[in-house]
Amino acid sequence: MSTNGSxxxxxxxxxVKKYFPIRKGLLQREVARVHAVDDVxxxxxxxxxxxxxxxxxxxKSTLGRTIVRLLEPTDGQILFEGQPxxxxxxxxxxxxxxxxxxxxxxxxxxxxxxxxxxxxxxxPLKIHGLGDKRERKAQVxxxxxxxxxxxxxxxxxxxxxxxxxxxxxxxxxALALRPxxxxxxxxxxxxxxxxxxxxxxxxxxxxxxxKLTYIFIAHxxxxxxxxxxxxxxxxxxxxxxxxxxxELYQRPIMPYTxxxxxxxxxxxxxxxxxxERIVLEGDVPSPINPPSGCRFHPRCxxxxxxxxxxxxxxxxxxxxxxAACHHPLNVDAATLAAVHAAPxxxxxxxxxxxxxxxxxxxxxxxxETGHPGQSLD
Amino acid sequence: MGERLLEVNDLSVHFATEDGVVHAVxxxxxxxxxxxxxxxxxxxxxxxxxxxxTVMGLTRDINARFxxxxxxxxxxxxxxxxxxxxxxxxNEIGMIxxxxxxxxxxxxxxxxxxxxxxxxxxxxxxxxxxxxxVELLRQVGIPNPEQRVDDFPHQFSGGMRQRAMIAMALSxxxxxxxxxxxxxxxxxxxxxxxxxxxxxxxxxxxxAVIMITHxxxxxxxxxxxILVMYAGRVVERAATRDLFxxxxxxxxxxxxxxxxxxxxxxxxxxxxxxxxxPSVINMPPGCxxxxxCPHAFEKCVEEPELENRVExxxxxxxxxxxxxxxxxxxxxxxxxxxxxxx
Lengths: 377, 342
Description:
Strand content of chain A: 15-25%
Helix content of chain B: 25-40%
Strand content of chain B: 15-25%
Largest interface: A-B, 53 and 47 residues
Largest sheet of chain A: 9 strands, mixed
Oligomer: heterodimer
Structural class of chain A: alpha/beta
Order of helices and strands of chain A: EEEHEEHEHHHEHEHEEHHHHEEHEH
Shape of chain A: globular
Order of helices and strands of chain B: EEEHEEHEHHHHEHEHEEHHEEH
Largest sheet of chain B: 8 strands, mixed
Helix content of chain A: 25-40%
Radius of gyration of chain A: 22 Å
C-alpha cells in the first residue's frame, strides 16, 4: 500500500542497457543485437513495491533478471544499498544473493520435480552455510507455515501440489534467506483468478512481516494495482511512464498506458459495453530493429511526424510522475508549462523535445468515454 | 430465437483411474443457439474443459463412462461411432485450445497444417486448400498472409499463433466454435484482440461459440449466457447481465470479488476464496462448495438441486440460502471488501 517506501533507495538502476548479440556463421560474428533493455533508470526505496508492466518482449523480465544479477548488464549502473553491483564477479556476488531473491512465473517449471519440498526450500540455507541440519529443518517448517502450507508437506514432491500451492513453495524458497529485495516475475499470471487473489494477499502480508521490497513484474495492470506503490511501464526496452500507482490509473499520460488500461477486462457487462476499448493493432515490433523516434509510434493512435523522428525524453510532470511522450494525455496547460526533462531520461533522447500541445486541444481524453481509471461507483 | 444447434442433457463424464472414479462432470445441461456465445466459467478442475472436450468427442477413452446426451441438430453425439464422430469433429464443431505454443506442430509450416485440416474434412485439391488457407489467415488478421502461410510456428508470436489456431478451427466452416481458455496464455492487449476477433468471426461465419475461461471479466462483454461450474457441476446458470447484477451462488460472488478491478477504488485487501476445490474422487457430501463457503449453514449438508429460485426465469442456482438473505449479504463479497472467507 502507498504508506510503504519512505526509506532510502534500496536499489538504483542507472541507464542500464542489456543487449543480446545475435551471432551467425562459422566465425559466430555478431550480426545484430536484441535491444532488450535500452537505457532504463529508476530507483526503488526500501519497503516499497514497484510494479513493472508491459507486454511480452518489452524487456521487463530481462530487466528484473539483470537487477538481481542473473544477467550482466551491457552498460549502465546498478546500485544496491549504494554499492555498485553491475560488475561484481560470482564470488563477490554471493553474499549479495542472500539479499536479493526471485519468484518465477511458472510454478511447474521453477521447482525441481525430483527434489522434495524440504530440500527445495532448504537448499538456499545449505548453500550459504546457515545452521545445521536440524535448525534448517525447523526453519523450513516455519517457512512452510508462513506461506500457508503445512509443515507435514516437508517430505512431499512438487507434483503432489496444485499450481497455487507450488507458487507458495517458490515464495518460501525466495524468503528462506530473509532477503531485502524480492523480484517477482509474473508470480500470479499462471494461476486461476481465485488463487491469484490469495497469492496477492499473501505477498502483501509477507511484505509487512519481513519488511520486503518488491519489484513486481506483470502484464496485467489490474493485478499490479493491488500491490504497487509506484508503477513503471515499459515498451520495447524503454521506460515510457513511471508514476505513483493510483495516479497512473486516474491520469495515464502515455497513450500506451491508456491502451494497456483499456485492455484489462471489466467484469461488468454494461460498463464493458459502454467503455471505449483501445485495441492495439498488431504485436510489439522486433527489438532487433526497434522503430525510430518514439518506439510506440507505429501503434499509437495519436502519432504525428515528430513521433517517428525524435525520441521523447522522460519528462517530469510533478509528483514523481514521469512519461516519455510528445503528445501527453490528461495534462493541463499549467503542468505542461512546468514540464522539464527528468534525470532518468535516456541519453539518446532529445531533452529539448518536450511536449508542447496540451491534451485538451490535441485529442479528446477520457471524460465521457468511460475511462477505466475513472471510478464509476 | 435462433436455430438450436446443441442441446446437452444431464451430461456426466466419469473416468476410472487407479485411485478411484473421477467424477469430472456430473449432470450438466445447456443449450446453444446459432449466433450466441455461451460462457463456461470455473476454476481448474471444475470440469469445464472436460465438458467441452466431450462435446468434441475428445474424451472417448476406454476408461471413460458417459451419461446423458449431447444432441447436435437432433443426433446424440455420444452414440456415434468414432468414424461417424470424425464427420462432426472439425466440420460441425471446431475447437481452439489454451496454449497455441503446444497445439501447433513445430516442424510443419503453418499453411501445411491448415491445408491438412481442410483436406481431412473436405475433398479439395492441394492448390485450392492452399488458397483457402491464405484466405483464412487473412480473415483472422494475419498481415501478409501470402508470405506468412509458409512460416513455421516459431516465427509467429503468441497472438499470431492463436490466430492461426482459430483459422484452422474455422477451416471447415463449423457451426460451433469451442474456445478453451483461448487467451489465458496471452498478454492483456492481445487478449482484447483475440476476443474481438472471435466475436467478429462468430457473426461472419454465422456460428455459435462456447467460451471457456476462469476469468469472469473475459466473458462479460461477449457472452449471452454463462454457466458457472464447480466440482463437475453447474452451480449457477443465467443470462450474462443477470449473472453479474444478480448473482445467486456464493461461489460466483467469490469469483467476482477476487478479480482485481480497475473500475472501482482499490480495496485494502482483495477478496479471496479460501482453500482449494474438493478432490473429484472423494467429494464432500451435500453442497460441494460448503467447505469453502462463508455462508454455509445446517441445510447445506444436503445437496441443493440446480433450480430457478429467483423471479427471472432461466436463472438457475444451487444454493439453499434465502434469496433475500443472499441479496443483502453478497454486496461486500462482490465488492471485494469482505475479509477472506473463513
